[in-house]
Amino acid sequence: MAPLKRGRSAHSEEVNLGIVGDGQSCPFKFFHSCKYDNSGSSRLLGHLKRDHLSWDDGIRVLRDAISVESALFGEVGEALRFLSQWLCVRCMSLHALSRGCHHEDGIARFTSSSGDADDFIVGIPKPRQPLIDQAHVSSGGIVVDGALLERVFAIPMVTVKSIPHTCRMAFAQALTGSLRKVLATPGSVESWVKLLLLPRCTLQVVRPASRQERRSGNRKSMQCGSIMRALAVWKDGVGLEDLVLSLLAQSSECPSGRLSLKDTNEKGASIKQCLRKVADGHFTAAEPPNLPTFSPSEHALQVDADYVLGCVKSFPKGTSCGKDGLRAQHILDALSGKGASTASGLLAAITEVVNLWLGGFCPRVLAEFIASAPLTPLLKPDNGIRPIAVGAIWRRLVSKVAMHKFGKEMASHLGDYQFGVGVPNGAEAILHSANRFLNAFHDNASLAMLTVYFLTPLTWLIVRLSCGNEGPTLGLVLNIKKPEVFWPSCNGAKVQSGAFPSGIGRPARGVKLLGGAVSRDESFISTLAIKWAQRAVDLMESIRKLCDPQSELLLLRSCMGVAKLLFGLRTCQPAFVADAVSLFDKGLWGALEDIVVCGGPYFGDFQWRLASLPIRSGGLGLSSAEDLSAYAFVASRSNGWIKSVEWGDWVCD
Q1: Do 376 and 321 belong to one domain?
Q2: Is residue 554 exposed (0-12), middle (13-18) or buried (19+ Cβ within 10 Å)?
Q3: Which of 578, 567, 547, 557 is nearest to 623 (CA)?
Q4: How many C-beta atoms lie closer than 10 Å to residue 507's C-beta?
Q5: What pLDDT score was predicted for residue 36?
Q6: How many separate domains does the chain show?
């Protein structure tokens, strides 16, 4: 065998033959936690005999794999030809080409009949099909249905974040073909399954097996070659069987690549946390939704290509994929670059399939795979678990299209803004409104609870259609210890059994809403304000440890000043926060005294007043809470009153 030339031009040939640099990669790199590093033929031979062929269980696994996997059979043959050795499958022993393998019933010898690498494995013929459970194979091949989709989705694998430029046209053509088959036969489960399996079968991330393959240029070339080979096998869905069998065969092997110790520890910690959460019942699986059996009387929503293209572009960069492996970036890649020549046809096909989804023409058996959003548990810094719901891109695209289509129409019913969200001082307006309502009706014993409705025709329509029907079952259960029922003028109904869950909170004096107080009890408001002031004072006392007046003043002005108490001053009546104001000013006095005179004498009321002046007037720019409490509440209340007048005018219009 002629040696390969070093350089860029010989790279593709090296990949095909499994040769990297001056050495040969181990053909069993996915077995037995192989750590061979391509150091040469002598070390590879010793590595095979020592780490793979020296124990009975390993020999049995390798013999079974070689006998059924054609790709592994070819890799082993190439490695043996590189080593000038042959393998006797009967005893799984390596021998020189001139030596025979002695058995009780005779001697097995190496004979080169065809000159191929297959001759170096003696005892079994080259397999024709990969390893696959025959229970999932019918007489005509695999059964393309929901069961196959579920099994393929269960395989742990990752798709590329972005399609390489050289592969975009081929992927665009394959995606267009799959979409057109769905349009031709919208009732066929097989066409929909092929559409959902396309990303997983063709865009799988290639894991480098050696240091040479981890290099940027080699890795990109391997990734492009893998995608192009998979797309060539796909052939408008004809090669689905081969690709699916390959995926199922890979799932039985060890995952390629090796995780670092840090990644292994983090993965183990995540698994332990998830198992504990599951045992506690936090991640209970939801029952499949009950789909309506009646046909809607209204016509289905129809959208055009501009809506679809705008929604595809609206996905944030780096949007995660669902179980099918398709990302929003994949669709954008197929519509750009070398795939731009077929972009119009692809966009038209996507639009028509989206209209099929909007019309409800997708087979019901696939609703669980398309409309579901599995929870992905992420490990938080405090070792907690944050469940993230990641749905399929197709379902999210259809939802975006529907929302964009009806968004402007719904604005006339629901308004174009929310209280407290994107509105200056919106939370303060809500608190003032709640307290005004409380003060206006506190003498009325019939007052039960404060319930907010937007009284529009749409509200009554929703109530009329949904009352009496049980809502859909959700995967997450409401933590009943967090909600509270505040019933100011209770007539005893809130403590009756069955009115509310037993674990729900029932505060008697007041409740916190959006960080503020909703109450008529002076002690409740005063206690809450004192807590805010005490936290600010504790922070101001901690900056003394810096022993740097300049840094202390900078922190005091930027994040430890009266701003820590300003929200409470603007939402609570001045008479109720007098103790908190006094406590805060006392702490601020001590912090200023430490900065100006380092805790010494000569810091009195005059120096305090000078320090509270603005910097442009010769002061330190630190305001006292007592000076602000006189007008902060009035300013916020008047601002909320102006907003309520504007809201009332909008409702009247």
Answers
A1: yes
A2: middle
A3: 557
A4: 15
A5: 66
A6: 4
